[in-house]
Specification:
By secondary structure, this protein is an alpha+beta fold. The protein contains four helices and five strands. The chain has helices at about 1-45, 60-70, 85-100, 110-130; strands at about 140-150, 155-165, 170-175, 175-180, 185-190.
C-alpha cells in the first residue's frame, strides 16, 4: 500500500514538473519569437535607408587590403579592421539586404546573430594570423569567386578560395567567405573558420 502511495506521489510530481518545464519552454519560445519579430521590423525599416559602403574599387582590392591589414595588426578583434564591414555597415547595409533570402538571420534575432558573426570573425582572424605570408607575396594572389548573387541592393561575391604564392609555396585561404558590393564599392563581408 505504501509503495502504491509513493508511486502515485512520484507520478503526480513528474506530471507537475513536466507542465512547469513546458510552460517555461513556451515562455522562452515566445520571448525568442518576439525578439525575432522586433529584429525583422528594425532591419526592414533600415533597408529603406541609403547608407553607403566605405570600401574599395574591386573584389581583388578589397581582399588584398584585408589581408594586408590582418598581417599588420596584432589584434584579432574584427572591429579594428577598416577593410572588413564594420558594425554600422552590418546593421544598416549587410543585414537588411540579406534578410528574407534564406540566411540564418531569417530565424535568428539580431543580437544573437551579431554574437554568432563576431565569434566566426574572431575564429577566422585567429586562423589567418597563423598563415605565413608577407605583403609582397600578395602580388601573386588568385581569388576564386564561386558566384555572384544579388541580395536586395547589394551583391555578394562568394569566395571559394584565395591562393597566395610565396617563396615557400602556395598558401590557401578559405576564411574569407564573401565580399559585399554596394554600387561600385567592395568590402570583405563574411569570415568563417
Amino acid at each position: 500500500m505504501k509503495q502504491k502511495i509513493l508511486l502515485m506521489l512520484l507520478l503526480v510530481s513528474l506530471v507537475f514538473a513536466c507542465k512547469k518545464e513546458k510552460q517555461e519552454l513556451n515562455t522562452q519560445n515566445e520571448l525568442q519569437r518576439l525578439k525575432l519579430e522586433e529584429s525583422k521590423k528594425i532591419l526592414t525599416e533600415r533597408k529603406s535607408l541609403n547608407y553607403s559602403l566605405q570600401g574599395y574599387s574591386s573584389v581583388e582590392e578589397a581582399v588584398k587590403n584585408f589581408l594586408i591589414e590582418v598581417r599588420k595588426t596584432n589584434q584579432i578583434e574584427s572591429a579594428q579592421l577598416k577593410s572588413l564591414v564594420d558594425q554600422t555597415e552590418k546593421e544598416f547595409i549587410l543585414y537588411p539586404n540579406i534578410l528574407g533570402y534564406g540566411t540564418s538571420l531569417d530565424v535568428t534575432p539580431l543580437d544573437d546573430y551579431n554574437k554568432m558573426i563576431r565569434s566566426f570573425e574572431i575564429l577566422a582572424l585567429g586562423k589567418l594570423k597563423e598563415k605565413s605570408y608577407t605583403e609582397s607575396d600578395l602580388k601573386s594572389i588568385k581569388i576564386m569567386v564561386r558566384s555572384v548573387k544579388d541580395y536586395g541592393k547589394t551583391k555578394f561575391h562568394k569566395i571559394g578560395l584565395v591562393i597566395i604564392g610565396t617563396p615557400k609555396g602556395k598558401i590557401e585561404i578559405g576564411e574569407i567567405r564573401s565580399v559585399i558590393q554596394l554600387g561600385n564599392r567592395y568590402k570583405v563581408a563574411i569570415l568563417a573558420p
